[in-house]
Amino acid sequence: MVPASYYLVLSAILFGLGVVGFVFKRNIITIFMSIELMLNAVNLAFVSFSRELGSLDGQVFVFFVIVVAAAEAAVGLAIILLIARNRQSLNVENVDLLKL
Amino acid sequence: MQILDHLWIIPALPLLGSALNGLLWRRMPKPAVSAIAVGSVLLSFAAFVKLWREFYEATHAAGGFVVPAVRTYFTWIAAGSFQADFALQVDQLTLVMLGVVTGVGSLIHIYSIGYMAHEEGYARFFSYLNLFMFFMLVLVLGANFLVLFVGWEGVGLCSYLLIGFYFLKKSAGDAGKKAFIVNRIGDFGFMLAVFLIFWTFDSLDFKQVFERAAAMPVETAGSYGVLTAICLLLFVGATGKSAQLPLYVWLPDAMEGPTPVSALIHAATMVTAGVYMVARSSVLFAHAPLAMATVAVIGALTAIFAATIGLVQNDIKRVLAYSTVSQLGYMFLACGVGAFAAGIFHLMTHAFFKALLFLGAGSVIHSLGGEQDLRAMGGLWRKIPWTHGVMLVATLAIAGAPLFSGFFSKDAILEAAFVSPYAIRPLYFLGLLTALLTAFYMFRLYFCIFHGTPRFDEHQVHVHESPWSMLAPLVVLAVLSLGGGWVGIPKLLWGENHFEHFLAPAFGAAEQLKVQAEAAHPAAHSIALEWGLMAAAIVVALAGALFAMRTYYSRPENADRLAARFAGPHRWLLNKYWVDEIYDFLFVHPIQWLSTNVFWRVMDVRAIDGAVNGVAWTAAAGGDRLRMAQSGNTRSYAAWVVLGAALLTTFLLWLGP
């Protein structure tokens, strides 16, 4: 059986990749996908703990995360679509109307 | 249904009337307004009559009857050891007050239909008047000091509203404010007294307070204690409400209100609340001789002081106002010398004849189309015979003409002031002198209005007798002014003095102490002395009346000559001893100065506004700085989120288990 630490390391690597993409990428779609990556890295950690501890709590949390992520995707993609339509660009640097 | 078990009905009826008229007046025609207002008070009066019968039956029934009959409706306030119930009670004193309030109140309501017929705000007037009845009835029915206080403040509010009834007139608004503020000073004393009562007796219920007080020792000279303090503070409250020195100044100005209001509130009922409260607390006062002496002295001084001012006033209602102040002084004199029953007796007879005098004055004013100045009247007796007749009865009653109601009550007070163990001789002479002045100024008023040559333009003013709705209450009150005193005919005149015997249970504890005091200082009691006192009262009343007749009827030119000869004193009296000006100088101006220059310009503008503006300014400046964090750059937000998450995680790991 694969030890839980393997999963957790993988989860941490995925989360780190998500953070890097979230901070450094300029394309909104990529940033959005990075967020999804982080969420799923957390999900992976949850299920591996769930299996390790023999408790279903972690899996229940995963469902919550999936539901929230789905809702977020629906709203987020709609916003991205509108931004793309209005600005003909997906570069976050251009989305700066709140700038002083 | 037993009213005795449903005491709340008596005050609730006028409250209902007030609410109906106050809320629905737009939809109701005038007759409906009058019917509701008068009907509710008449029903209250009917309830009182039934209550009286029940009370008599219950007290005479075998097995006895616990007096006072207390009915508790609900717990009003309960906090720690403090508990105050909404409770009403009936005893003999309450019954007398209920009779006066509902009886005279009903008559004045009926009178008002005619008097106010052509006034703006007809429904508003009746709504206030009914509300006043409600609070007054709560005041006299209350079974603890808190309920009493509710009524006390409520009647004050209604008094304010009704004095300022013609609120478009500046003088009326000012008079209302004056009454309210001066009463506030008195109420301050009353509130302190109530706190002190709770602190001392751990209760506010009349029954418990008076039972516990009765068990305490009398606080004679050198051992003044909490009871003396309580009584003096209660009396401060009474001086405000009942217009005694030094807080009487609001009552003469209160005549700005409509005349029925002057009759009901500022003569017959509300201003007697202080006397009622002192009589109600008779047990407390009997244990505090110093407070008793204060009450008697202030009462006697007020009586003479106001009577002298009344001698020279020219406004018909002001003469009556000063007369009211003076007569209230009489009542306090009676209470102060321990003759509580005599004080309440005078309260009742005074309610009859003073209400009659005011309503009669209203009828005179009405007949002259609004004229209030005595100098513009005269010779009216032939033109308004009914008003003239009832006014003559009332004048005789207040002057103390034998067999009229005022005679018996005033005689009872003067006798008490002479023979009571609490009294000192000067009090009696002040009382006697006041009786002389009373007879003089009342007959001056009478002759100036009804006799001599008319001093108004007879072609301009169409003098007319008032409508029946105004005359009927006058006639009833005239009968009461004449015969109202017969319930208390003293033994000397082969009477039974029913009134005093009736009230005796209410003042039982105080009476016992008085008997003890009498035993310590035996007074010379004799039939000859009593006859002498009565004769003296009759002689001074007659002298006052005759002197007024000589001055204002037989030789009217005498009046001016008299004024010229005593120009100095006359000026003093005409200007009411400049008391208002002195108060203005001593209190009003300094307080206004303090308010403007300290409380407004410093406290309000600098401290309070400064603090509020300072908070707002700090928030604005802080926001200005924090705005920098909002760069508007999406990626910097992302960096902040990651940084925050990293910090939070580190923090949790650091502190973690």
What is the largest interface, and how many residues per chain? A-B, 13 and 11 residues
Rg of chain A computed from alpha carbons, rounded to a whole number of angstroms: 17 Å
Query: What is the helical fraction of chain B, as a range of percent?
Result: over 70%
Order of SSEs of chain B: HHEEHHHHHHHHHHHHHHHHHHHHHHHH
* Relative strand content of chain B: under 5%
**Parts with pLDDT < 50 across at least 5 consecutive residues of chain B:** none
Write the element-wise H/E pattern of chain A from the N-terminal end onward: HHH
Number of DSSP helical runs of chain A: 3
DSSP E strands of chain B, number = 2
Biggest sheet overview of chain A: none
Provide the CATH topology of chain A: Helix Hairpins
User: Quaternary arrangement of the chains shown?
Assistant: heterodimer
Describe the structure.
The complex is a heterodimer of chains A (100) and B (657). By secondary structure, chain A is an all-alpha fold. Chain A is built from three helices and no strands. Chain A is elongated, with a radius of gyration of 17 Å. With 657 residues, chain B is mostly helical. The radius of gyration of chain B is 30 Å and the shape is globular. The model of chain B has no long low-confidence stretch (mean pLDDT 89).
